[in-house]
Design a protein that fits this description.
The chain is an all-alpha fold. It is 69% helix and 0% strand.
C-alpha cells in the first residue's frame, strides 16, 4: 500500500490541537477524493477474506501511526498531553470518525467540523 495519495506530511504547528486539525484535514482530503474512495472501499471490503491484504493494511497503519507519534512526543514535551493519553486511540477516534462520516455516511466535513472533532477528542486528554 504505497502510493503518493497515501503520503501524509506530519504537521508541526506548535500545538497538539493544531497538529491534529491538520492531520484531520489530510485524512478528510484523502477520503473525499472519489478515486481514493473507490480504492479504499475495495480494499476494506477484501480485508475479512484476504489475509495478505489485511496484513499489508496492518503494516501500512502501523507505519503511519509510528510516523505520527512525533506529534504526541512534542505535545508531551510541551506539557499539553496527559501522561496516560493513548496516541493510538486518539488517532483511531479522529480517523475512525472521518472514515465513518465520509465513507459510510457519505457526508463531508468542513474546517469547522474538523476543529470541533479535534476539540471533542482532546477534551478527555488535554491538560
Amino acid at each position: 500500500m504505497q502510493a503518493p495519495e497515501l503520503t501524509f506530511a506530519v504537521p508541526d504547528t506548535g500545538s497538539l490541537r493544531g497538529d491534529l486539525v491538520e492531520l484531520a484535514k489530510q485524512i478528510h482530503r484523502l477520503l473525499s477524493d472519489p478515486a481514493n474512495r473507490r480504492v479504499i472501499t475495495t480494499v476494506v471490503s477484501a480485508l475479512p477474506d484476504r489475509p495478505a491484504t489485511a496484513e499489508a493494511a496492518g503494516r501500512f497503519f502501523a507505519d503511519r501511526l509510528g510516523r505520527e507519534q512525533v506529534v504526541f512526543d512534542r505535545a508531551h514535551a510541551r506539557g499539553e498531553l496527559a501522561d496516560a493519553a493513548d496516541s493510538e486511540m486518539i488517532l483511531d477516534l479522529l480517523g475512525g470518525n472521518l472514515w465513518f462520516r465520509t465513507l459510510v455516511r457519505a457526508k463531508s466535513a468542513d474546517d469547522t467540523y474538523l476543529e470541533r472533532l479535534v476539540d471533542t477528542v482532546l477534551t478527555g486528554v488535554a491538560r
